[in-house]
Amino acid sequence: MPRRGARRIALLEKGGLQRDVSTVFSHLMPGAADEALLRDTAKVEMDARIREGRILVEVRVTNEKAGHHIPTDHPARNILLLVTATDARRTELEHLGTQRIPDWGGKGDDADDYAGRPGKGYAKILEELWTEVAPTAAYWRQTVLRADTRIPAKGVDITHYEFRRPSDGGPVVVKARLIFRRAFKVLADQKSWKVPDILMNETTLTISSMPKIL
């Protein structure tokens, strides 16, 4: 609810009075319909170093400004953290860790099928009791909560990744992207919904070709 320069909370003809601009806050509350608001919600930070032929990466995602868990509202909403490391030829390095995006991140051969790739998924995962379908967005049916990986307000989520260092010792570019989806990909595909991903935030770190070996 930011200040937007308004000086009244009601129209003049409805009895609105002039107020100090610092005391009038916007009540538009667009939520996830506002892409600019989404991009100003979470902070992504990253550290990387080299140890024994491996690139060690730590990613921190902070829910800075939502004031509630992210994602929230409709249970179909989800956020993906995608982490990549590429060499000087832009070839992705082998991921040696176990921290990966879950199946609901999209299984298949599409460019936006991220299941199994380095990263993490943030969502409330509901399962239908009778059909055992999970994740489901049909909250009006009888469901059970199977997982809740959302980030609470002001919360910080930390994950770690390991990539094999290029044999030529060249520079490595590590990138972390935070991607918002209005619906789980399998549901969007089933319904033929055209709901493009929204990039909430990203950060990139380049490790020089002559790093200090730890």
Radius of gyration: 21 Å
Largest sheet: 4 strands, antiparallel
Helix/strand-derived category reads: mainly beta
Q: Indicate the CATH class of the largest domain.
A: Mainly Beta
Helix content: under 10%
Shape descriptor reads globular
Q: How much of the residues is beta strand, in percent?
A: 25-35%
Mean pLDDT: 90
Strand order of the largest sheet: 4-3-8-9
CATH architecture of the largest domain: Sandwich
Uncertain spans, ≥5 residues at pLDDT below 50? none
Number of helices: 2
Question: Could you walk me through the main structural features you see in this protein, from its secondary elements to its overall organization?
Answer:
- This protein has 214 residues and is mainly β.
- It folds into two domains: 1-33, no CATH class; 35-207, Immunoglobulin-like (Sandwich), CATH 2.60.40.
- 5% of the residues lie in helices and 34% in strands.
- It contains two helices and nine strands, in the order αββββββββαβ.
- It has helices spanning 35-38, 185-191, and strands at 42-51, 54-63, 78-86, 119-122, 124-128, 143-148, 156-164, 172-181, 198-207.
- A hairpin with a 2-residue loop joins strand 1 (42-51) and strand 2 (54-63).
Set out the fold topology.
Elements: H1 35-38, E1 42-51, E2 54-63, E3 78-86, E4 119-122, E5 124-128, E6 143-148, E7 156-164, E8 172-181, H2 185-191, E9 198-207
Antiparallel strand pairs: 1-2, 2-7, 3-4, 3-8, 5-6, 8-9
